[in-house]
Every structure is written in C-alpha cells, then in structure tokens.
Design brief:
By secondary structure, this protein is an alpha/beta fold. The protein contains 5 helices and 8 strands. It is globular and about 40 Å long. One of its GO terms (molecular function) is hydrolase activity.
C-alpha cells in the first residue's frame, strides 16, 4: 500500500495507491467524508472500499482532500475538493493509461464529490455512493446522470433522512438507460459500525462484480 504524493490544483495531495498486477486492470478512486468533520482517507468505510476494490483486481487510490493530513491547501467548500478528485483521477489515468474501466466510490461528502466527478468525466463506467448527503446538497446536476451505479444508505441515518435519498434514486431511475442499484442498511445511522461496514463492503463488491461480469459477457458476445 505505497504512499503517493501527486499534484493537486492547490498543492500536493497525499494518497495511498495499490497497482494491480493484471495489465489493463480497471481503476477505482475512493473519496472520504467531510474534511471539517473528521473525514480522512483512513476512514473505516473508505478503507474497506479501497481494500475490496484492491481484492477485485483494481488499481485503487484513496487520498486526503486539501488541508487533510499531509495534503496541502485549505478546505474549499466542496468546489476545490471536486478539483482535487479530478486531479486524483488524472494521476490514476496517467499511471493506468489502458485501464479497462473507471470507477469512483465515495462515502457521505465523498459520495457528493464522486457524483460531481461523474458529470465532468464521461469516461466513468460506474460508481458507488454510500450515505450520499441528498438532504444537504442539491443533486440536480445529475441531469442526465451519465452512468448507472450503487447507492446505499442507512435506514436510521440521523443526518440524511433515507427518504431524501430514495427520492433522488427514484429521479435517477426515471432517466433513460440509468439503473440505480439502491440498498438500505437496516439499523444503520450515518456512521457505520465495524459490522455494518463489512456489509457495506459486501454490497459494493456484489454490485461491482455483477457489472464487471455483465460487461465481460457483452464483450464475449460481440
């Protein structure tokens, strides 16, 4: 799990990067929760998602947004953090120029940034959004949503009511060609316990493997 430092728009950004052994492996970028509320790349959910993508054969990067850990710069209200994520994706693509597929995964604030990144990078093949803050940010920018993905939310989320996420999912699923795999973790709040985190990681792996298998079958049929 080598440490990496790469250029961001407001200084150098600190990350952890795993390079897959398989040539042309898919790549995944994992984004952490809100920097002003203790969010870092070492967050339990972020680390679990990073490990699962790694286990599935992805070249995988998690990193600290500006002003977090050893990343330079200061918190920028989400705008600069979207640029940080784009710089992280640039780093991933530079190291993996022939990647078979690009994924982004985010937790809470990271889910919002990840879905903003989808709109800026049409080459994205899939996403995983955990506890997306649908009641705190306007997700109307997903019109149209560029690709399908997984959204997972805690049934008892005390910060972001589950109904607000379900409403967003229904809007996205009404779009042509989009299929959001929506899963609700019963008994979970906004912060997941170790046991709930394991189930979140299982759900993410199940979704990603399903998409990868479907893609392989489609390619084999051509």
């Amino acid at each position: 799990m080598p440490e990496v430092m790469f250029a961001g728009p407001d200084g150098r950004l600190e990350g952890r990067y795993h390079h897959a052994k398989q040539p042309n492996a898919p790549v995944a970028l994992v984004l952490h929760p809100h920097p002003l509320h203790g969010g870092t790349m070492n967050n339990r959910v972020v680390h679990a998602l990073y490990s699962r993508f790694q286990d599935m054969g992805f070249s995988t990067l998690r990193f600290n947004f500006r002003g977090v850990g050893r990343s330079q710069g200061r918190y920028d209200g989400g705008i600069g953090e979207i640029s940080d994520a784009a710089a992280a994706l640039d780093f991933l693509q530079a190291v993996n120029p022939n990647a078979s597929m690009l994924w982004v995964a985010g937790y809470s604030f990271g889910a919002y940034v990840g879905m903003q990144l989808l709109m800026r990078r049409p080459e994205m093949g899939g996403f995983v959004s955990i506890a997306a803050p649908a009641s705190h940010y306007d997700f109307g920018f997903l019109a149209p949503c560029p690709c399908s993905g997984l959204m997972l939310h805690g049934a008892d989320d005390e910060l972001v009511p589950e109904a607000s996420v379900r409403k967003l999912v229904d809007k996205l699923n009404a779009q042509r060609g989009i299929c959001i795999d929506y899963r609700v973790e019963e008994g979970a709040g906004h912060v997941f316990t170790a046991e709930q985190t394991e189930r979140v990681a299982n759900a993410a792996e199940d979704h990603v493997r399903t998409v990868l298998n479907r893609t392989r079958m489609a390619m084999a049929a051509d």
